[in-house]
Amino acid sequence: MPGEIYNPNPTIFRTESPSSSSRLAQKRSLWINDDESTDVEENDEIEAIDQDEIYDLIRHIYDPEHPNTLEELRVVSAPQITVSGNLIKVEFTPTVPHCGMSTMIGLTIRVRLMRSLPSRFKVDIVVKPGSHESEHAVNKQLNDKERVAAALENPLLLKTLEESLDGINQRNPKD
């Protein structure tokens, strides 16, 4: 995304070896179709999901302004994820307290989980308390359905989001 780089020299951390692909990571429509809402009713057994599975879904998302994953930048980690029944809470830590990409990162995490998880899950995305100057405003934006829907109608934001999810132009950015 063009503009000011908020953290021009982030700390990069060593990551775990890539895990096997989860069946949850299959690409799905951004919005749930009515046809898919009967999946739970047709299947008597509801498969439980744990924090490691959620972490595997989001750890390989690329930062919108750096050629590194959220795992490499320690923006997300397994202990920052809680799963309680059908409620999933993902807490993430921006690389700097004034990060202008925090909302974009949270939106990307939300979209990855929307596309990957069954519709029975409610997902809350929040900034780690005390890690961002505009923590309350970012959290409000990330957990408001109308604001999320409006953001996803913006072609530039959607392009940046897709690039973060797919890793396009991230490892070898154009000079």
UniProtKB/TrEMBL annotation:
Keyword Signal carried by entry: no
InterPro entries: FSCA_dom_sf, MIP18, MIP18-like
GO biological process assignments: chromosome segregation; protein maturation
Pfam families per UniProt: FeS_assembly_P
Family designation: Belongs to the MIP18 family.
Domain MIP18 family-like: 52-123
GO CC annotations on file: intracellular protein-containing complex; iron-sulfur cluster assembly complex
Keywords linked to the UniProt accession: Chromosome partition
Higher taxonomy: Eukaryota, Fungi, Dikarya, Basidiomycota, Agaricomycotina
Region annotated Disordered, chain positions: 1-39
Keyword Glycoprotein: no
The protein's name in its UniProt record: MIP18 family-like domain-containing protein
Gene3D superfamilies: 6.10.250.1280, Fe-S cluster assembly (FSCA)
Regions of compositional bias (Polar residues) in chain numbering: 8-24
